[in-house]
Amino acid sequence: MSELIVALDMQNLDDVKSIVKEFDKKVDFYKVGMELFYSEGRRAIEYLKNENKKVFLDLKLHDIPNTVLKGLISLANLNVDILNVHASGGFSMMKFANESLKEFCYKKNLIIPKLIAVTILTSIGDEDYEKIGYKTDVKNQVLNLAKLTKKAGLDGVVASVLEANLIKQNLGENFLIITPGIRPNFANINDQNRIASPSEAIKNGATHLVIGRALTLANDKLKALEEILKEMEI
Predict the structure, then answer these.
(1) Residue 228 annotated as binding?
(2) pLDDT band at 183 (very low <50, low <70, confident <90, very high)
(3) What does the buried/exposed string (b/e) look like for 75-91 if buried means 16 or more CB atoms within 10 Å of the residue's CB?
(4) Is 61 marked within a binding site?
(5) CA–CA distance, 159 with 30 (Å, rounded to integer)
(6) What's the alpha-carbon Rg for the chain, to the nearest Å?
(7) Is 15 in the active site?
């Protein structure tokens, strides 16, 4: 069963509280990204955990292995459920960070968060992708990065719906595929390129659907949530 993650793309904790209160028990999983975390820091995480919500802390760490590990260790102390790094940081970075993070959490008796890797951002279209200089098409590059991620021992990837089925076919049912760029039928595309509807995401094998502005900026948030949950029923 695919799970909805609501992206809290905002800067103010009061706005977060308003949304969490409005959605109540209808939403159990929230994503905290750079915008909110850099503004409110651990207060945002502590609030969500106190409300018994699951948290995907989406900071996309990308640096040398030791620096990434130190960052992950600091974040693991917040007891979040999912953390992420950039797969393009390389196999050695991912493997070292994953193994060392698990060892740290075990020794400190902390919950071991799922560690996933970002493949290619869903905001990157064909033109930008070519300018970066990749020598293979997007789908093959995403699959290559996903295979590298699994080989390094991580739990899954962030990828667009357009690559989800390919990843599932090659890497199996138990590998997490978290898909941003989800746009329900009533929503605007905004700054995303490789997008799909909730039903398309589920059919293609996404384990988690990340949806933000289509919900958090809706005039009638509960109605928008109901429509999305209905689209997810396939």
Answers:
(1) no
(2) confident
(3) bbebebbbbbbbbbbbe
(4) yes
(5) 18
(6) 17
(7) no
Give yes or no: 60 in active site: yes
220 is catalytic: no
| Confidence grade of residue 195 (pLDDT, cut at 50, 70, 90) | confident
Q: Where are the alpha helices (DSSP H) in 116-160?
A: 126-132, 138-151
Of 167, 170, 162, nearest to 197 (Cα)?
162
Pull the structure tokens for residue 127.
């033109």
pLDDT for the residue 42: 96
| Residues in the chain, overall count | 234
Taking the whole predicted model, whether its pTM rises above 0.90 is answered as yes
Cα dist from 14 to 33, 36, 51, 53, 124, whole Å: 16, 11, 14, 16, 32
Q: Is 133 helix (H, G, I), strand (E, B) or coil?
A: coil
- Average model confidence (pLDDT) across the chain: 94
Tell me the domains of the chain and their CATH numbers: 3-231 (3.20.20.70)
Q: Please report the DSSP string for 178-200 in residue order.
A: EE--B--TTS--TT-SS-B-HHH
Residue 208 assigned as binding residue:
no
Q: Among residues 180, 183, 231, which one has the least CA distance to residue 207? A: 180
Instruction: Tell me which H or E stretch contains 82.
Output: strand 82-86
